[in-house]
Amino acid sequence: MDGYEKVGNFSPRTDLAIEISNALKLDRDDSYEIPGVEVKQKALEEGALAVTKVRILNTEGEKNMGKPIGDYITIESNGLKQNNPELHEKIISVLAEAIKSLLPEKKQDPLNILVIGLGNRFATPDTLGPKVANQVFVTRHMALKEPELLDEGVCYLSSFAPSVMGLTGIETAEVIRGVADNVKPDCIIAIDALAARSATRINTTIQITNTGISPGAGVGNKRKELNEATIGCKVIAVGVPTVVDTVTLVSDALNDLISHMLKQAEHSPFYDVLKDLTAEEHYQLIKESIYPEISDLFVTPKEIDEVMEYLSSIVANGINLAVHPGMTLKDINKYTY
Question: Which of 10, 130, 197, 229 makes an SS bond possible with 14, Cβ 3.0 to 4.6 Å?
């Protein structure tokens, strides 16, 4: 169910576990706990930064959430899309800790990490993966040729951006599996742009999970999954929602309009018609009325070019600090910029 928030039969697109858990808790008591799911939240930096951990514990939780068993860590901050270097450094630190918590235990010292940048470098909202792949601190070539150059606390890291099937004609998972068979990583870190249920989460949220990823799922182009079962090693996925689908956006606007109209039309026949419409009926009404002209369109903010520079730098440095614990941000920036 990657790419959809399923509440009953109502399934707007989302890749975010936090949005699915919030939807399942909607209109319930604050103490309600989703069966098979554990949710923990904490605020940092005086509320400027929030971290939520959604843990799907068993098959019951998997069924309720429509996502695989595992951990889903979400970092939220409006500062992600703003030119705020001080806050960005704090977000990088929190992101590094989240990634580090999901890395496998060392089978060898150092770890062998393969970073995969998923996405289409020619479509701006989908360039996160390729941009991050270009900014991580690559060391595997040095480990093979001049290992004495690597200090303690620096892992063997290689990086690769396989592009998309529409440009290569090759299934992305097949390309990655071929690379992994040769590199033999202990862990793959895959980066991809995601889709959100709410426009407020666009460019303000990072999701980190140890359950792998299905490239293209957020925009309905679901490809073969990348996970431990298909690739042969642990897969950590890092994603940022950069788009929201048009139907969801218009549906939300309609809901707001109806709420306003209900206040104006209370105790009238019009009120009785509107108040009985469910969220699913709102969504289906919009989907049918704009199909097929714009029902498959996705929306991204006009400042996406600038924001993508911030996001790629934050995600790349979060990975760098997580997998190269012997280096500081200042050390890494000397070599990657």
Answer: 197
Q: With DSSP H G I counted as helix, E B as strand and the rest as coil, what are the percentages for the chain, rounded to 5?
A: 45, 20, 35
Q: Reply yes or no on whether the pLDDT at 203 is more than 50.
A: yes
Residue 217 C-alpha from the chain's centroid: 11
Is 248 a residue whose pLDDT tops 80? Answer: no
**Three state DSSP letters for 168-198:** HCCCHHHHHHHHHHHHCCCEEEEEEEEECCC
pLDDT exceeds cutoff 80 at 123 = yes
HEC string of 120-162 equals CCCCHHHCHHHHHHHHCCCCHHHHHHCHHHCCCCCCEEEEECC
Structure tokens at 76: 């939220």
- Residue 106 CB contacts under 8 Å (≥ 6 apart), including other chains: 186
| Token duo for residue 69 | 């068993």
Return the CATH class of domain 17-247+297-336.
alpha beta
- Mean of the per-residue pLDDT values of the chain: 84
Return the number of other C-beta atoms located less than 10 Å from residue 290's C-beta: 15
Closest by CA position to 311, among listed 239, 253, 252: 239
Give domain limits for the chain. Answer: 17-247+297-336
| Distance linking the first and last C-alpha atoms of the chain | 39
Q: Which residues of 201-217 are buried (b: 16+ CB within 10 A; e: fewer)?
A: bbbbbbbbbbbbbbbbb
Cis amide bond preceding 110, omega within 30: yes
Question: What is the Cα–Cα distance from 129 to 162, expressed in whole angstroms?
Answer: 10
